[in-house]
TrEMBL record:
Mg(2+) 1 binds at D399, E406. Homodimer. Its cofactor is Mg(2+). Pfam families: tRNA-synt_2, tRNA_anti-codon. This is Lysine--tRNA ligase. Belongs to the class-II aminoacyl-tRNA synthetase family. It is found in: Cytoplasm. Its EC number is 6.1.1.6. It catalyses: tRNA(Lys) + L-lysine + ATP = L-lysyl-tRNA(Lys) + AMP + diphosphate. Mg(2+) 2 binds at E406.
Length: 487
């Protein structure tokens, strides 16, 4: 770094700007490949271009120097690389010496010259002049040695300079979020934005991050869900709404959980759990089509996103897993015995419904490889979902499990303000009793419901987990700049 700083100082002393505003680029590296890529080995043109890029390879050999430039990437193209050549005959002794003295790996440079193909068949620009575009003061990672995962995540910008997979992840995620928006827009959904800072956290069972608003001198939280404000918009007359935004939950961090992540939530008037499930399936299938295949490899499993997706009820699934019939009437004592048999530690605070959910997650969920809408949950699973008309102890809600992991959840929404108040009062009492994940009583949301909301279906989809599905990596790799423990 000291040597690079000395080079920067020398450039300034010699009147050569190390960070100019403009360098006069005429063609991207991709443009050059697209227009002159057909040339044969040894063929030369008189076409002069000015190209720019980061120096990712350099070989200085006497009177002829070679370098490889790498440019940026965009939604419609990956990073391109192109060779540049500097010869004594073309640039002169002074400029060739300056190149050898001043240019390091990682620098951005501008090179002007003729488009040619080397004798070895490499499309190149034979320089007539060059200019420093941005002097790098830190060395690049070694192109030929793997950065550790920790180093890659901590210095994603460095990772992206040397690893095409890192750059491709950014493009893939952008393609996925663009596809989601295009699907929703085509289906008549209105994208809106809701507050990140909230007086009362709600919409999910999760522990919030606390903060403080100095202007009002009041405590606030970062949102744990998008739901309650999107439903307010539905009360106001929006027919179909969605938001794709950051969610913050002050909970554990592992390969599938991050404290800051991206959630899609969508609500459709006059819909229910079935219609919102159809939308969710279409969103995911459209993403698969955007990426090129409806068959996705996850470890040793091939996930087939085509055709009908399975619906699976919780209680029959648990019954099959434990070898006896389990229903909402099964006594808690028997459920505890079954849990002990399967080495599931039971929290004394759990209800029978909670214990059934835990048994399902332990015994059934890991084996659900193909897309499965898990439905007929006990009511405790989703306090904001509508109770089932068949059995009020169950709810009209589903979790979408693909490759053993929850990817989305959906409901027939609870719109009865009286029942909703009862549910939130129960939640607030649990919060007062010390449950850090219980929701608080949100009077403004209840006021909104009392104006009358249309029947609706609603869904939430973890965008990061969707990216994980299509890329086969952990959540830290899908988030460009994840939160990390300080060094």
């Amino acid at each position: 770094m000291q040597i690079r700083r000395e080079k920067r100082a020398r450039l300034l002393a010699d009147g050569r700007e190390p960070y100019p505003v403009r360098v006069g680029r005429t063609h991207s590296l991709a443009d050059v490949r697209g227009r002159w890529g057909h040339l044969e080995a040894g063929e030369e043109t008189q076409d002069v271009v000015t190209v720019t890029g980061r120096v990712v390879f350099v070989r200085n050999t006497g009177k002829l120097c070679f370098a490889t430039l790498q440019d940026g990437f965009s939604p419609d193209r990956a990073s391109e690389r192109l060779q540049v050549m500097l010869s004594l005959a073309e640039v002169g002794e002074t400029e060739l010496a300056a190149w050898k003295a001043d240019v390091d790996l990682g620098d951005h440079v501008a090179v002007t010259g003729r488009v040619i193909v080397s004798r070895r068949g490499e499309l190149s620009v034979m320089a007539s002049e060059w200019r420093m575009a941005s002097k790098a003061l830190r060395p690049m990672p070694n192109l030929h040695s793997e950065m550790s995962e920790e180093a890659r995540v901590r210095q994603r910008y460095a990772d992206m300079t040397v690893r095409s997979d890192a750059r491709e992840m950014v493009r893939t995620r952008a393609a996925i979020t663009r596809s989601i928006r295009e699907t929703l827009h085509a289906d008549g959904y209105l994208e809106i934005e809701t507050p990140v800072l909230q007086l009362i956290h709600g919409g999910a069972a999760a522990r919030p991050f606390g903060t403080h608003l100095n202007a009002f001198d009041i405590p606030m939280t970062l949102r744990i869900a998008l739901e309650l404000f999107l439903k307010r918009a539905m009360v106001g007359g929006a027919d179909r709404v969605y938001e794709m935004g950051r969610i913050f939950r002050n909970e554990g961090i592992d390969s599938s959980h991050a404290p800051e992540f991206t959630m899609l939530e969508a609500y459709q008037s006059w819909g229910d759990q079935k219609s919102i499930a159809a939308l969710t399936q279409k969103i995911i299938v459209d993403v698969a089509d955007q990426l090129g295949s409806r068959r996705v490899q996850v470890g040793e499993h091939t996930i087939d996103l085509d055709g009908e997706w399975t619906w699976l009820s919780v209680y029959p699934a648990v019954s099959e897993a434990v070898g006896e019939e389990i229903t909402p009437d099964t006594p808690m004592t028997r459920l505890v015995e079954i849990a002990a048999k399967h080495d599931l530690e039971v929290d004394p605070k759990w209800s029978d419904g909670k214990l059934v959910i835990e048994l399902f997650e332990l015994l059934v969920e890991p084996g659900l490889v193909q897309p499965t809408f898990v439905c007929d949950y006990p009511a405790i699973a989703q306090p904001l979902a509508r109770r089932s008309d068949r059995d009020p102890r169950l709810i009209e809600a589903w979790d979408l499990i693909i490759a053993g992991m929850e990817r989305a959840t959906g409901f027939s929404e609870l719109i009865d303000p009286v029942i909703q108040r009862e549910v939130l009062v129960e939640q607030s009492l649990a919060a007062a009793a010390g449950d850090p994940e219980a929701m608080q009583l949100d009077e403004d949301f209840l006021n909104a419901l009392e104006f009358g909301a249309p029947p609706m279906g609603g869904m939430g989809l973890g965008v990061d987990r969707l990216v994980m599905l299509f890329t086969g990596v952990g959540i830290r790799e899908t988030i460009l700049f994840p939160l990390l423990k300080p060094l």
